[in-house]
Design goal:
The structure is a homodimer. Chain A is α+β, with helices and mostly antiparallel strands. The first copy, chain A, is built from 3 helices and 4 strands.
């Protein structure tokens, strides 16, 4: 079982990506760990060590995928 | 079974994201359709209608997720 880590900061864009990952990730192959960097700032260094530059981001099999770079103002109005 | 569509244009950033999706998506719930917009430019309008602004992007359950906005020059040197 591999671990996928989703880093976010609680904004609507992050939560949308989180829901998508919860729906789509193959739970027979991956455990999804969700880290809120706003609340768990102790994890920021770990995230940086994986190459995370922004949230939301997914780290899987050692690779970083930044999803939807930041929040568009339009999304924050929803 | 839902359909997830991955739009890309063949660059290394796109291919890395494609491999990640092929590994992680729950194939019991989603079929993954992969569209190369460079080769299948007829699909660009469809992609736009989903809200795709850049590639690589994943459309799943009607939502668009842009993954790694564009290619960093550093990635193109790999």
């Amino acid at each position: 079982m591999s671990k996928a880590i989703f880093y976010h900061a609680g904004c609507p864009v992050c939560l949308g990506a989180e829901q998508m990952l919860l729906n789509t990730i193959d739970k027979n192959k991956y455990t999804l760990e969700i880290v809120h960097l706003g609340n768990d700032s102790g994890c920021i260094e770990e995230a940086e060590s994986f190459g995370v530059n922004s949230v939301p981001a997914l780290v899987v099999d050692g690779q970083v995928f930044h999803i939807n770079f930041g929040a568009a103002l339009a999304d924050l109005k929803k």
